[in-house]
């Protein structure tokens, strides 16, 4: 998915809003904004929105003198999600359809997002997961979840693309429903807003139920043109890919392969692309396969 003109003011708003979480120094705030606007003038709009977002992230982190400014927030959301996980696991086990329930909860966890304008940045997660059990699923709906379950049972290799910290803890509920020994979870190579890294996968205990690797990039998505050859080969050879989050959708929506996108729609441009509304829960299979 290319970067649309509407993505540009969104990034500029983030360049104003995001740094204020970490500093009130007007000189630093202005410098981040000016450098971001200058970089945008040179950005190739044929590239994806997360790649534009990465430009802001790198500028902000350099100007703040902090390579991972969201670190403490990521750890806080991992803790909050970990506290809720046992109760949610009981919900899954007692459900009439454990697989669908796990998928619903994992989609709801995608609300945890410090980059997208409609992302959830507070700690009020319990109500969110309660609502998820009855929330309509768009994209392919129940039929897409059913097809995902069928293909997961047949696949000899499944690549699960993680998105945010905190969210990755809840992702374990879905991974526990998948065939043991056939799942690889991919996290980011380096800090990208509040996206999950190795540390977050370890907190979630994912190394106990799956192989964990990195995508080789430090941006909030998975643009294969930027990923190292070894990861691209792993992606191409996977029989089934489960892609979490809007950033992964934006970078992979045009890729071939059997890809299921699980996300909460957080911006009007992506909503239009998916024929949905902002706030919708989506489970959708890519159209190219």
Write the layout of secondary structure elements.
Elements: H1 7-17, H2 26-41, H3 49-64, H4 71-94, H5 98-109, H6 126-132, E1 137-139, H7 141-154, E2 158-161, H8 167-175, E3 183-187, H9 198-203, E4 211-214, H10 229-237, E5 240-244, H11 246-252, E6 259-264, H12 268-274, E7 281-285
Folded structure, characterized:
- This protein has helices spanning 7-17, 26-41, 49-64, 71-94, 98-109, 126-132, 141-154, 167-175, 198-203, 229-237, 246-252, 268-274, and strands spanning 137-139, 158-161, 183-187, 211-214, 240-244, 259-264, 281-285.
- It is of the alpha/beta class.
- The protein folds into two domains: 7-64; 71-285, Uncharacterised protein PF01937, DUF89, domain 3 (Rossmann fold, 3-Layer(aba) Sandwich), CATH 3.40.50.
- A seven-stranded mixed beta sheet has the order 1-7-6-5-2-3-4, sandwiched between helices.
- Strand 2 (158-161), helix 8 (167-175) and strand 3 form a beta-alpha-beta unit.
- Helix 1 (7-17) runs parallel beside helix 3, helix 2 (26-41) runs antiparallel to helix 3 (49-64) and helix 4 (71-94) runs antiparallel to helix 5 (98-109).
- The longest helix is centred in the first third of the chain and has 24 residues, at 71-94.
- It starts with 6 loop residues before the first helix and ends with a strand.
